[in-house]
């Protein structure tokens, strides 16, 4: 069970980043009219992206170093799980970058400014 939680840690961080980024943007744009919401939302997008990227890099590094040099007495599935964990962390890293770039490229609070 512990291995499964670590295996999906990358996608869980991406999902949390995605949720926090868009939930905060929606809440701020509806609560704060005007340019102030745009500036606060842009800062929030940057903050959540940096936090998500830092966590994913740390987790990916942990996975890569943990499963790199293991002795011959390990279970056959351990190296495979290590590669899966690193791959999921890398894919989640790309997903965080993709979501942050998309959120930064679109106008902030545009649907709420009418």
Task: Provide a quick synopsis of the model.
The chain has 114 residues and is mainly α. Helices cover 79% and strands 0% of the residues.
Summarize this structure as a short list of keywords or feature phrases.
114 residues; mainly alpha; 79% helix; elongated
Radius of gyration, rounded? 18 Å
Continuous helix count:
4
The assigned structural class equals mainly alpha
Uncertain segments are none
Structure summary, number of beta strands: 0
Q: How far apart are the first and last residues' alpha carbons, in Å? A: 49 Å
Number of domain modules: 1
Q: What pattern of helices and strands is seen along the backbone?
A: HHHH
Helical amount: over 70%
Question: Quick one: biggest sheet?
Answer: none
Question: What is the element layout, followed by pairings?
Answer:
Elements: H1 2-7, H2 9-31, H3 35-66, H4 77-105
